[in-house]
User: What shape does this take?
Amino acid sequence: MAHARARPRPRQHIQVLVAAAMLLLSSALFTTARFPLAVSARLPNPTTTTRLLLFAGLPSSSPLRAFCPRARPSPATCAAFSSTMAAADNPLLVADFDFPPFDRVEPSHVRPGIRELLTRLEGELEELEKGVEPTWGKLVEPLERITDRLEVIWGMVDHLKAVKDSADLRAAVEEVQPDKVKFQLRLGQSKPIYEAFKAIRNSSDWDSLSDARKRIVEAQIKEAVLSGVALEDEQREKFNQIEQELEKLTQKFSENVLDATKKFEKLITDKKEIEGLPATALGLAAQTAVSKGHENATAENGPWVITLDAPSYIPVMQHAQNRALREEVYRAYLTRASSGELDNTNIISQVLKLRLEKAKLLGYKNYAEVSMAQKMATVERVEELLEKLRAASWGHAVKDMEDLKIFAKDSGSPEANDLTHWDLTFWSERLRESKYDINEEELRPYFALPKVMDGLFTLAHKLFGVTVEPADGLAPVWHSDVKFYCVKDSSNSPVAYFYFDPYSRPSEKRGGAWMNVVFSRSRVLARNGLAARLPVAHMVCNQTPPVGDKPSLMTFREVETVFHEFGHALQHMLTKQDEGFVAGIRGVEWDAVELPSQFMENWCYHKNTLLSIAKHYENGETLPEEIYAKLVAAKNFRAGTFSLRQIRFASVDMELHTTYDPNGSLSIYDVDRRVAERTQVLAPLPEDRFLCSFSHIFAGGYAAGYYSYKWAEVLSADAFSAFEDAGLDNEKAIEETGRRFRDTVLALGGGKSPLEVFVSFRGREPSPEPLLRHNGLLPVAA
Assistant: This one.
């Protein structure tokens, strides 16, 4: 017979016990001078009022109500007490924590929690403004405390909305978001703070400040100007309205993309319709079917459910022999969020109009100039780089298409003379298999997630001298799939922590992969006797989840994605900057922030690294060296086509934010088609609406900044070429170069300009030649 478990006490019983205990102790507590001020200040008459309030919290059926005093506390006292008790019970208002209580935050906490937080911060801001002085201790440090608290707490809510979305959470965020934006504008437009920073900049002590502190002061002045601090009256009011509306619109854009992606489901009962799909895709499709109520679904016999989530969509486009299915899925993906109540077309139009209006209020010609004000590049230099890369890629992309047509024709394909968009990925995969004798699906068993992570951490130890250890249980998490890790230095002391949420969850988690900040390293916010608060990050991916009793078996592209996001996390975690405003990725110009992430992707093709992670999940056998050689040979397969794809995205982003007139006669789709004429060998479909799901620029931080991927790719390829120059087989040289990379690119954060950081590592300014060489777009001897 199983042991009966003790049932948890109902909440009202706990309230009775707590109230009874507090009633007995109340007199003694209130005569103690050490009773918390926040409560004692709100309860002026402890002998009677306290008991009234304690009893007021009891359920009406409680027998303890018989002892309740007859007098009633005032409504104001009750409200104050309720607010205090609610705050004590709200995880968003916990005064201090080692790690955020992600597991405790519910949608019901958001409205009261964020409003109370903003009230407190408003009070702190007013105090700062009253006593502000142009010194570090009287200006920068209190400002860091205010901004950090908002970033950490709002960051929790924003993160949960990305990984654990729900209607209740959306509604709560939508309601408090204007209050949050209002406070940010109030802070950004604070003239006392702005004038104090200008006073530091103009003081006789300026030359004695460290580079990091100079960068903070200059960035704060620039951010204030871009936040509208110099605007007055009607202009400031209009600017603030624009900011509120942009926040609302970009949030809605993101929600529409998620909902449109979730909305498409294709139920398949005839296996002939999905002929060609590999076992992993069939297993996932059956697992999805089970989750949709088809409880007897199996990989072998179905039914199967296809969705637009990447682990489902990509295998269909690569492997489904059913051309009609490929077309249906492709069209659905390409037109996400472009019709009906989820149509993002009008949102894009409004966003572009508001961004242009904002730019002109700030004295700029267009929004791209606003964006570039905080980046390495200028509009002219971006256009120059994109054209140079486009010209180098075009001929290769044309040949890619010719090769595909010839191969399809030689294969006897009936569609060979009419290849279109839903054929390209399918026939590219067949050509790659034929040309390099390599099948991505057959590689999956060699890339089980646990082994990939072990190999990644081994590489980090070799290059940067750090050890990554599991620390599950140390910090609360938002889902059982989430892993938690501790990063330690050579003395075995913790230097950082990070969360990893690896798998796709289409019902609640937005697509893509990203890294974000939980805590930044900070001297000002140090606790527990440490010299600085340690940085904490989270990495989020959307890769293939485990199916049945198998671990997550990754595609090679998913492996690259994990390495990419870990590169971001390393820059955040291995910073040696103690000034919070420029620690880790903070204060780094946006077009340089992709350097470490794209740098790490190069190691996926490094022989010793790849063979250390590529172990068959069943028997532990290492990936055969001849397959590794084929992987390397296939690295630049269709490189011209993939390069042009990124250039198209970057170019349409720049054009929409520079020359395009959102009040004119041309539509956003006209602009996209015009850009496609010089960046896409096969013209897009007339109904192409990819812009409606282009979250990077309409719901992320990449507006007039998508070029950053290519800009930083120049930096990252050149940085990796330093390791090539040292000798990739020379372990000692690799280690020495890795330490130099850590001490510059990873350590300096935003405390120096990205160009200075790069030169301190590489010994010279960056060159695009290594990127073109790595992508096979220049001869190796160049």
Notes: The chain has 30 helices and seven strands.
